[in-house]
Amino acid sequence: MGIDPASPTTDTGLTGGYAMMDRTISALLLSLAATAALSGCARDPGSDSRAVTAEVRKDALGVVAAYNAQDAHRAAAYDAPDYVGVYHGTANTVGPAADEAAMKTQMQAMNIKWQLGPDKVTVARAGDLGIFEAPYTFVITMPQGAVRRETGTWTAIFKRQDDGSMKLWRSIASDTPAPGATAG
């Protein structure tokens, strides 16, 4: 997830600059590459796309529920061994242990409730990858009581593991820029 408790969080996340544009472009390119990978997969005759779609949605919502319950261990349990989390303004989170540690740090510094809007799930024909996309709002309550909101899009890519389970392989949170914000 990757919200930096030492950095002030605003309603709109980062403002302007090429760094935000670079992160947004990087997230877009990763999403496009994953979509291209999904469309190029040969159909596994044993895969049921409705079942995989339901599995991906259930797991994505499970991550959010665990996070909102302040259970970093349970949230990180959805991560694949080669998990990478990409969140604007922070270094990438690599691996479940790093993800759990980052979430624990966030949870100690502030209370964040993660809300999702209507989601879309795209599943590879082979049933080995699934992309969950949804608008998000983080409602952040600081220790002194101030409440802030951040909105954006969460893209979560789940990958089938050797044991047959689907695990969160890539997690990308891309915040929505402030109205009227310009790069430069």
3D architecture notes:
This protein is α+β, with helices and mostly antiparallel strands. The protein has a single domain, classed as Roll (Nuclear Transport Factor 2, Chain: A), CATH 3.10.450.50. It is 34% helix and 32% strand. It contains four helices and seven strands. Strands 1, 2, 3, 4, 5, 6 and 7 form a seven-stranded mixed beta sheet that branches. The longest helix is centred in the N-terminal third of the chain and has 23 residues, at 17-39. It is globular.
Q: Which structural class matches the secondary elements?
A: alpha+beta
Pick out the low-confidence regions: 2-46
SSE arrangement, N to C: HHHEEHEEEEE
- Estimate the helix proportion, in percent: 25-40%
Mean pLDDT across residues: 77
- Would you tell me which CATH topology applies? Nuclear Transport Factor 2, Chain: A
Give short descriptive properties of this protein.
globular, alpha+beta, 34% helix, Nuclear Transport Factor 2, Chain: A, 184 residues, disordered N terminus
In short:
The chain has about 180 residues and is of the alpha+beta class. It has a single domain, classed as Nuclear Transport Factor 2, Chain: A (Roll).
Secondary-structure map with pairings?
Blueprint: H1 17-39, H2 49-68, H3 72-76, E1 79-87, E2 93-94, H4 96-109, E3 111-116, E4 120-123, E5 129-141, E6 147-160, E7 166-175
Parallel strand pairs: 1-7
Antiparallel strand pairs: 1-2, 3-5, 4-5, 5-6, 6-7
